[in-house]
Design a protein that fits this description.
It is a single chain. The protein is built from three helices and eleven strands, in the order E-H-E-E-E-E-E-H-E-E-E-E-E-H. It has helices at residues 13-28, 96-112, 199-214; strands spanning 3-6, 35-39, 44-47, 64-66, 73-76, 80-86, 119-121, 124-130, 144-155, 158-166, 186-187. Strands 1, 2, 6, 7, 8, 9, 10 and 11 form an eight-stranded mixed sheet that branches. It has a three-stranded mixed sheet with strand order 4-3-5, with no helix packed on it. Strand 9 and strand 10 (158-166) form a beta hairpin. It starts with a strand and ends with a helix.
């Protein structure tokens, strides 16, 4: 069985990384259960393994942490649910692409609990919302905003890092980076979309939909 941990308050990023790495090692050795850890962080930026220095547009705004996850720059902060996913991908089929698709499907299923349609876009990591409430763009299509980011790392076929869902963060904090290297789309949140959703509501939805995706 997967262990679920919810940590109240704001969790230090270095402490989170140390916990994840130790837990992933223990899972790989067969000494610990798989784990889903739900946290919030103080305002900070993380640089994934593909981060471009030019995408850190305000380097003095918040602390910047080098991260071992894939991807580029990401913001974490209060009002954003960070979901650290320590799962045995080796036991679950050793298919990294499928695992990422499962994480995407999990986010989409969670958003669907609030009647919000999340979508995937080729070449763009994360989950997106088509803003039909906004004027059409130059291409004649609704603009799209990112509501969730995904970035993982595997060690000995055990995952760590994971996903983040914007519940009610300060969206202005994203302006210090080019989120995930994508400059021509915006960022949104559940509350920004007009949904009176709490962190507890999101946690409940995450847990309810997890089994339908991962079994």
């Amino acid at each position: 069985m997967v262990e679920w941990i919810i940590t109240p308050g704001l969790t230090d990023y270095n402490e989170a990384t140390a916990f994840m790495e130790a837990r992933a090692e223990a899972i790989a050795r067969g000494e610990a259960r798989e784990c889903i850890w739900l946290v919030e962080h103080p305002p900070l930026y993380t640089a994934g393994t593909s981060a471009r220095p030019a995408d850190l547009t305000d380097p003095d705004r918040f602390p910047v942490y080098e991260s071992k996850r894939g991807g580029q720059y990401t913001y974490h902060g209060p009002g954003q649910r960070v979901v650290y996913v320590m799962l045995d991908v080796g036991r679950r089929g050793r298919d990294v692409r499928r695992f990422v698709e499962q994480l995407e499907a999990w986010v989409i299923a969670t958003l669907d609990e609030f009647n919000l349609r999340g979508e995937i876009r080729p070449g763009r990591v994360g989950v997106w919302i088509a803003r039909t409430d906004k004027p059409l763009g130059p291409n004649g299509q609704p603009p799209e905003d990112k509501i969730a980011a995904i970035g993982i790392r595997l060690r000995k076929w055990v995952s760590f890092h994971g996903i983040s869902i914007n519940v009610e963060p300060n969206l202005d904090h994203f302006t210090g980076i080019v989120p995930c290297g994508i400059s021509d789309h915006g960022v949104t949140s559940l509350v920004d979309m007009g949904l009176p959703v709490t962190m507890g509501d999101v946690d409940t939805a995450l847990r309810r939909t997890f089994g339908t995706i991962f079994g």
